[in-house]
Amino acid sequence: MRMFGKAGKAAAVAAIAALALTACGRSDSGSSTSTTGGEAFPKDSLIGVALPQKTSENWVLAEKLFNDGLTGAGFKADVQFANAGVSEQQNQISTMVTKGAKVIIVGAIDGSQLGTQLKQAHDSGAVVIAYDRLVKNTDAVDYYVAYDNFKVGELQGQALLDGMKAKKASGPYNIELFAGSPDDANARVFFDGAMSVLQPKIDDGTLKVLSGQKSFEQAVTQGWKDSEAQKRMETLLSGSYTSANPDGVLSPNDNLARAVLRAVKAAGKPLPVVTGQDSEVESVKSIMAGEQYSTINKDTRKLVEHAIEMVKGLQQNKKPEINDDKSYNNGVKIVPAYLLPPVIVTKENVKTAYVDDPVLGPLTK
Ligand code: BGC
Fold first, then answer.
1. What is the rounded CA–CA span in Å between residue 335 and residue 131?
2. Could you tell which of 59, 184, 298, 343 is best to mutate to test the pocket of ligand 1, judged by most ligand atoms within 8 Å of the CB?
3. Which residue owns the Cα nearest ligand 1 atom 6?
4. What is the pLDDT of residues 302-330, one digit of tens each?
5. Alpha-carbon distances of 280 from 120, 135, 277, 294, 302, rounded to whole Å
6. CA–CA dist 55, 280 (Å, integer)
7. Which atom of ligand 1 lies nearest, measured to the CA of 184?
8. Residue 283: CB within 6 Å of ligand 1?
9. Nearest-angstrom CA–CA distance, 321 and 32
10. Could you tell me if the CB of 56 is within 6 A of ligand 1?
11. CA 41 / ligand 1 centre spacing (Å)
């Protein structure tokens, strides 16, 4: 839940690290440089990592990075996917608590359904870090580490405008809007970020949504399922584009972007400008081939690394570094966050964007 617009956000980011935040009065409070000395828990403690379903490549990569990084730092790692859904994730978190995990890192499937398990974690003395996705409606979450989700949306909205302008100098442009899964707290933030750029252009007539489906609720894709997005795009095409063509489609991530492109290809229409996110291999190839227009680079290695740095600090009784204490109100508290900057990638910068990436670097050379 975003609490402020652009100006407030800039001020918040500027104000950051200076703030001494009190983290629920737990032993982990203090700034990144301050320490109360001693160890909060033994160095070989169990650290739990509850990941959602494998709805994009970043989650699969995170599993390996958490296992390697945590064990490399001397901790015991318990990294779990919950492919069967919310109740499996709830059970996994409870089991981590029972096994004595000192920190539980959570990439929630449904950010509103973990209150009971996270309270259990807190009651046992564990620190809870929301990873990538915010956990909502509970005070049993201490920190949030993620890429700046609102900024991701803004970059997607701007890329959509830029891509359409490069093809056709002036509007009006026909666009359609897709959003992620409504149970993932990120989905609305991505959408709001994009709409902060697109809504003024809808209002002034530059952009036309021929289907009329402009709200988040109309744009959502349950479970981030590509089959759902493909089906919806087919319906939009047959319903609203028999005589017109879509110039652009806002897609919240790469997996859904490729689904949208499949539907357009099957309908034999010219490819619209389609946005994405995650720098998935197939989408980076598609960008290089001039099909998908953009993606977002949110290097999973950096995000996992930061989460593990937090764990190491907590173990030494240091308060994790925070750079945002305003944006993420989870309905009960403002969760102190560390946000990393996302980067837009199009065909123009695809060769330079991934120079350090072991998989995408060689692919884009
Ligand atoms: C992540 C995205 C990802 C999506 C689907 C979101 O919470 O931030 O990177 O594309 O989940 O897995």
1. 12
2. 184
3. 186
4. 999 999 999 999 999 999 999 999 999 99
5. 36, 25, 8, 11, 16
6. 11
7. 7
8. no
9. 5
10. yes
11. 32
Which domains are assigned to the chain? 5-141+299-341 (3.40.50.2300), 149-298+347-354 (3.40.50.2300)
Mean pLDDT of the chain: 91
Specify the DSSP class assigned to residue 105: E
- Closest atom of ligand 1 to 132 CA is 8
Shortest CA distance to 235 belongs to which of 178, 173, 295, 156? 178
**pLDDT value of residue 37:** 63
The Cα–Cα gap between 350 and 365 comes to: 9
Cross-strand partners of 334: 329
Say how far apart CA 62 and CA 58 lie, in whole Å.
Answer: 6
* Backbone torsions φ then ψ of 111, nearest 5 degrees: -65, -10
Pairwise CA distance, residues 282 & 18, whole Å: 41
Q: In this structure, are strands 343-346 and 294-297 parallel, antiparallel, or unpaired? A: antiparallel
Contact between residue 222 and residue 181 where contact means Cβ atoms under 8 Å apart? yes
- Number of Cβ within 10 Å of residue 332's Cβ equals 14
Angle value at C-alpha 126, between 125 and 127, nearest 5 degrees:
120
pLDDT single digits (tens) 167-198: 999 999 999 999 999 999 999 999 999 999 99
Query: Among 360, 226, 254, 351, which Cα is nearest to 299's?
Result: 360
pLDDT tens, residue by residue, 53-96 = 999 999 999 999 999 999 999 999 999 999 999 999 999 999 99
| Start-end of H helices in 169-269 | 185-203, 216-219, 226-240, 254-266
Q: Which residues contact 242 (CB under 8 A, 6 or more apart)?
A: none
Distance CA 136, CA 151 (A): 20
Residue 280 Cβ inside 6 Å of ligand 1? The answer reads no
What gap in Å lies between CA 216 and CA 180, rounded to an integer?
9
